[in-house]
Amino acid sequence: MPPLLELRGATTVYGGGGLLRKREAVVALDHVSFAIADDRPSITAIAGESGSGKTTLGHLLLGHLSPTSGHVLYRGKDLATMNAEERMQFRRAVQPIFQDPFAAFNPFYRIDHVLRQPIRRFQLATGDRPARQLIEEALEMVGLRPQETLGRFPHQLSGGQRQRIMVARALLCRPKVILADEPVSMVDASLRATILASLQRLNQGLGISVIYITHDLTTAYQISDNIIILYRGSVAEAGSVERVVQDPQHPYTQLLISSIPVPDRKRRWVGEDLPEADAAPPRHSTGCKFAPRCKAVMDVCWQQPPPLYQTDPDRVAACFLYKDSPVLESSDVAQAFRNPGAIGG
Amino acid sequence: MTDVLRVEDLAVYYLTPDGPIKAVDGVSFALKAGERLGLIGESGSGKTTMGTALMRLTRPPGRIVRGHVQLNGRDLLAVSERELSAIRLREIALVPQGAMNALNPVMRIRDQIVDGIVAHEGELLRRESADRVAQALTRVGMPVALADRFPHELSGGQKQRVAIAIATMLNPRVIVADEPTSALDVVVQRQVMLTLGRVQEGLGAAVILIGHDMGLMAQFADTIGVLYAGKLVEYGPIDDVLESPRHPYTRLLVDSLPKLDAKHELRGIPGLPPALLNLPPGCPFAPRCPHAFGRCVEETPLLQHLAAEHRVACHLY
After folding, report:
1. To probe the interface with A, which of B146, B160, B219, B261 has the most A CB atoms within 10 Å?
2. Is B251 contained in some domain?
3. Chain B neighbours among A 85-114 (CB < 8 Å)?
4. Model confidence pLDDT, tens digit, residues B208-265
5. CATH number (domain holding residue B145)
6. Structural domain includes residue B113
7. CB within 8 Å: B191 and A260
8. Residue closest to B37 by CA, chosen among B207, B240, B175
9. Structural domain contains residue B265
């Protein structure tokens, strides 16, 4: 069975054009491959800081953007060569939830409008009554009461409610995959857990796979099965979320995790000086992108990019510190993912 | 130790045609020299309104309707505008929310630092101003060479550190920092917070850190005040509050925090924060509170001492 959704050597380069003066090209995503399996629903986190390429990756998976090189495939079919009908199916099967629940609504329309749109577009129901029933079911699935939600205008709802409406809208399409790009970063702390829990329920209850794009490793750890850590467009580390978060191997992952402000007074930051976080690699560096900030940097790191080393059965790290481990044969980092069914076992 | 800052019964309302929105309503606390206070609250809890009111920077339709802000024995809310300008930056300084975007894009960092000094101390000799700029930048751990750059040539973390350098160059006694790291990545955030802590310790100043991230509070603050609907609902040493939160809101907030050491069931706080217009009588958290009883909807609980330093506003106690 081909994977549900797959990136194969996807590379995205922005800029580089310019009519009068050639602008510097920015490689947002650099030969990234991974696949989301079709036979078992999973939650995969794509984590990284700003500039890591995580949002670009999301746009590729949604088909909003074509890779500069490489391929995006849905059930084995390249998005670039799909016909209109296949594309329609793909658009219905892969549903996005975006960061800003305030920008996603047209303030002039009632909430009903945004929920009826997919029903019309994908002809999910004929007639008003079945449509309304679908909408009510979807709202209830995300913990909203239809009578308190429908008929309202966006400004009458909180950010948390709006974001849950976006989840309900995605649900209407009976998707295979929900791609959520920072879905809770603009939502208050007391409501975040509610939204993430609803994503988890969809995954477990309805068998929908979730791709959770975030900068927040704590929530990624809580809801995901597997995680991919991106650094400047490349995979730094990937694998089962337990392994990666509890025992990070890549120096970048270690830096990220030690920088999380945990609400625990016994685990406070130590006041050491950190490598300048803003240090950019030399423009045309051929080595590891993290080398300029890395505490464990070696000569080899400046000369060539590290391959993905399989350091555990369910984890890979792109770092020469692990050069005694075997190199991952396929470039698909999902080879190192753990079967979600095995979690907790 | 004496208190550098005493806030008494501070109330800030936004006057709207539909009635006053009580963004901050009767908040009192005191701060000792060198103390780090975290004020935590969700959006709409009044935390930013509070920060600007402490500087007397409230703008219409907002209005400080009552209260005192005693800074070294002087009431900031009563002094003349002239005195106030002398006090700001020199005695109390604000690192505003999104400070890194408040830098003037067409002025070099050097000139933006000198600006504040000149406003307080008059013109400086060229030599002297170079020294002061170097001192301000070194204090926040930045190379002096960056003084000749424009803001767009700096990264977000660097700009935020420049904002801290500007706020602290006249050695204030109190620094108010409103979400100083809200748009920054975790690694940069840690760097900026460590910088702020180091500068504060060097000056022996008190800091009020305003924010919504309990993790950041735990890492930085000594004391924490929890704001809900414009009121302080709990106030005390951070160790006590995190260890045994007393107000039901604080407890639910602490319980809802995702942790890194073990997976657990995610639970949010049911319900929504109240609209501040025409807030009904009683405890503002009562509609969401699992322990609410009759008295909670009739009478607003006052902040009272549970222990010497731990105060909570809840009828359960």
Report:
1. B219
2. no
3. none
4. 999 988 999 999 999 999 999 999 999 999 999 999 999 999 999 898 888 888 888 8
5. 3.40.50.300
6. yes
7. no
8. B207
9. no
